[in-house]
Every structure is written in C-alpha cells, then in structure tokens.
Amino acid sequence: MTMTTTRPRVPSGFTLANEQQAHEFECSGSVHGASKVTLVDHDGEQLLAVRLRPPRSLNDIRSRLGYVAAMGRENPAEWYITQYNLGWQASTRVSRTGHDSEAWGSGTTNYAWDDGYLDNAAGRPKWHLTYCRDHDTCGEG
Q1: Is there a single domain that holds both residue 62 and residue 48?
Q2: Hey, which end of the chain has fewer CB within 10 Å, N or C?
Q3: Do both 126 and 63 map to the same domain?
Q4: How confident is the model at residue 99 (pLDDT cuts 50, 70, 90)?
Q5: What is residue 3's three-state secondary structure?
Q6: 111 within domain boundaries
Q7: Could you give the C-alpha distances from 131 to 21, 27, 127, in angstroms and in order?
Q8: Domain span at residue 33?
Q9: What is the structure's pLDDT at 100?
Q10: What CA dihedral angle connects 136, 88, 61 and 49, to 10 degrees?
Q11: Domains: count for the chain
C-alpha cells in the first residue's frame, strides 16, 4: 500500500498506531484488523494512524481469551462483536454515571465482553485487544 499524502492531524475514527502496528506496516504494508491507514504529521514526524474494524472471522481475533470464548460458536465473529460491544457500552455507562458495572463485578462476563469493557475503561481504541498481538509489549498495556 502506497500513501502519497500526509494529513495534518489524526482523522476522526483513527488512532495513532502503536509500535507493533507501525512495525507490521513497515514489514508488510498493512496492519491486521485495520480497515484504513494513513500518515499523520505529528510534530514534524510522519506517524501511522489506523482505523480498526470489527473482526470478520474467528481467525481475525488475536485476543487469546476472546478467541477461545468465541471458538465453537455458530457465528464466532458475530458473537464476539456483539459481546465486545456490550462490554464497551457497559464501560461507557460506568464512565458516564460513575457507578461500577454490575456485570463486571459479578464475575459472570465472558472474555469477549471483557475485551470491550477493558479497552474502553483504559481509554484504548475500540478493537485494540481484539487485534493486539502482544498486549504486554504494545505500549498500550
């Protein structure tokens, strides 16, 4: 993928790529899970920005726990997306109301739900845990 323009700021829906994503792009010209990529001028330096998309198949999901939770389901990617979004929304309600999520506190959530909840609660981009190859070293952990 060749990019000829550099944007002056991160476009809406995009986030600056983490170190793993930038390295993946340098090596392959793409980023797993990104529907779009662009370069952004950041203090005189060109940085990669990505727009992550929901997973299209079970094999798209790199979250080990999310993958295991979705495995064996009739429509694993669809199930994962639904659960992830429910977790994301629950975390949004916590941020808005200041009250802890009953579901989170119950210990009865699944790992796909947890991925969405934790991404939002930590201020990470949506779908980060879904596609993160190694959360301990990505710089967002």
Answers
A1: no
A2: N
A3: yes
A4: confident
A5: coil
A6: yes
A7: 10, 17, 7
A8: 6-52
A9: 75
A10: -70
A11: 2
**Separation between Cα atoms, residue 30 and residue 71, nearest integer Å:** 26
Q: What is the pTM of this model?
A: 0.86
Instruction: Compute φ and ψ for 8, nearest 5 degrees.
Output: -75, -20
Examine the domain organization and report whether 67 and 108 are in the same domain.
yes
Identify any residues that bridge with 36 across adjacent strands, giving them in sequence order.
Answer: 51
Same structural domain, 86 and 119: yes
Positive or negative, the CA dihedral 38, 42, 45, 48 is: negative
> Are 113 and 91 within one domain?
yes
Does 108 reside within a domain? yes
Beta strands per DSSP E along the chain: 6-7, 15-16, 34-42, 45-52
For 2-51, how does the pLDDT look when each residue is reduced to its tens digit (9 = 90+)?
A: 455 788 889 999 999 988 999 999 999 999 999 999 999 988 889 999 99
Partner residues linked to 52 by β-bridges: 34
Buried b (16+ CB within 10 A) or exposed e, 61-86: bbbeebbebbeeeeebbebbbebbeb
74 and 111 part of one domain: yes
